[in-house]
Amino acid sequence: MDVYPWDALTRRIVEENGGCRVYVEEYLVPTQHPSAFIERIGGTDSHSTKIVISCKKTTLFRSRMVRSTPRKKLQRLLTGGTFLVALVGFVLFSYVAQRFVYQNTLSQAIQDNRKMGEAMVQLFEARFENMDLLPDSVLLQNFQTTCDNIDLPNSGFVCFVQANGDMVASPGLPPNTRFNLNEAQAQFINLDRDSRKNYSQAIQQGDFEGYYEYPEDAYSDIVVAIPITSEYHLMVHQNNAGLQATAGQNLSTFLLLGLIGAVLCGGLVFWLSRLIVTSYENELELKNDNMHAALQEIEAKNEFISAQQTEITDSIRYAQRIQESVMAQTHELDQLLPSYFLIDRPKDVVSGDFCWVGTLESKLIVAVGDCTGHGVPGAFMSLIANSWLERIINTEKISDPSVILEKLHRGICATLKQDSTQRPDGVDIAITVLDPEANSLTFSGAMSPVYLLIEGEIQEIATTKKPIGGSTIQDGATYKNHIYPLNEVETVYLSSDGYQDQFGGDQGRKYLKKNFRTLLQEISELSAKEQKQRLQDSYEAWTQNGAVAQVDDILILSFSLKPFWNRSGQQQISQPSEATRS
Prior knowledge:
The chain has 582 residues and is α+β, with helices and mostly antiparallel strands. It has two domains: 73-246, no CATH class; 327-581, Phosphatase 2c, domain 1 (4-Layer Sandwich). It is 44% helix and 23% strand. The protein contains 13 helices and 22 strands. The protein has helices at residues 34-40, 71-127, 136-149, 181-189, 199-205, 240-326, 330-336, 375-395, 401-415, 418-421, 513-523, 528-542, 562-565; strands at 10-17, 20-28, 59-67, 157-162, 166-169, 179-180, 209-214, 218-227, 232-238, 340-345, 353-360, 363-371, 427-435, 440-446, 450-454, 457-461, 482-485, 489-495, 503-504, 509-510, 554-560, 580-581. The strands form five sheets. Strands 6-5-4-9-8-7 form a six-stranded antiparallel beta sheet, sandwiched between helices. A six-stranded antiparallel beta sheet has the order 17-14-13-12-11-22, with helices on both faces. The radius of gyration is 57 Å and the shape is rod-shaped.
């Protein structure tokens, strides 16, 4: 039974809206039986939705929607906050109301006292035309009569005080009786003469109005003093305790109204918070529903894409098998090349780079081509180029590299109808022909050089700057042959440009041809196996072990000519009259 990796490689939030979050988890899909893995993790419940995005067979994505309802939590928070604010507000209101009510009651009592006192003074003035000329006995008798017959609210009363502080008339005061208020005050509250409020001074200075507050909560009445003559003042009293009782009744009414207001405000805030939370929750629910619908639509599309991908992948796999059956096989290279190495690293499943090896009579023909593009387009071009090479070499019996290239150019242009459409598709190719009988190595290239190791030095053999295909057909040979003695060349290196064009390194630049040539020089004295390993290690280091994506197909074929040296002048390769493709 296969073991599937259930732990997510990565997990991230792709959308967060209010209380709704969408998580995406990336899994590593087994290279074998990916459909079984997808089917196995496909089980979902009503609270999760699976999304499969199969850009490649190696990844699979699943999203899970997490839904939360903040209504109760938010309502509790708002309710508690409202209660706290209402409580603090009520306490502050009570304090302010108490001071306001008492001060208002006091001010009202002072105004009432003044109005009553002024009314009494007007009565006296109306009764007596000039009170200053009346005898004291008459005035005092009238003062006492007035005090005995006036009944004021809050146990209030009136009295008459002489300028020196002697009270000469008050309710129930016997005739011809007087006592000094300053002395009475000092004795009653046990104060020093310097610390008490002096009635006579207050009357004379005109600030005798309000109430008098003493230590240890000893209060006088609410008093207003109004001059009635130059010698006497009318003093209107209201009992302070009675005023406080009245103020307490008024305060109770205020507090009741404040409590009702706090309750109403709290209820209003709670209703508004419930309305806001409900609206928010409804909006969130609508968004969740829309997101669920979108996820279901994505899932349906992904299932369709997955089915298409499976079909495309199967087609590509089939194309790969066809390409592998047409291209040179390892066992055929082993038979024709005694000492060689091959690095074939397609960017995708199929490749636009190809290797062609074959024999014609006593000659060994080796070609490496790099077709336009990579993947499926490049693979199609490689099949076309391979088909024309088969025809030119095996059917037409041509072994001259320059002639092969010219005919290959004409054939591809005709196949792709490039004489009328000017399509840019083509092939960069290098062809080498080994002739042991003539002791010669002949090379010709179209936009693709060859590297030869001669006397321990890597030499780059120039190529014709004209591609195969992609241009108008021209009469006459346009590709140049380069001929070298076979026993002077130690090793041949044929390569596509994928290795040199690969980005990487610390600065993310191309590897470049000069660095590739330098690397070949460094490894030229090693065995074929060691050279291949060094090239692969250098590539991995350049791309930081795959951190930088591969940009093109890579193909490198190298073979040693030393095994052919001791056979120069002899028929080296024994073959039938028809060339053998490898």
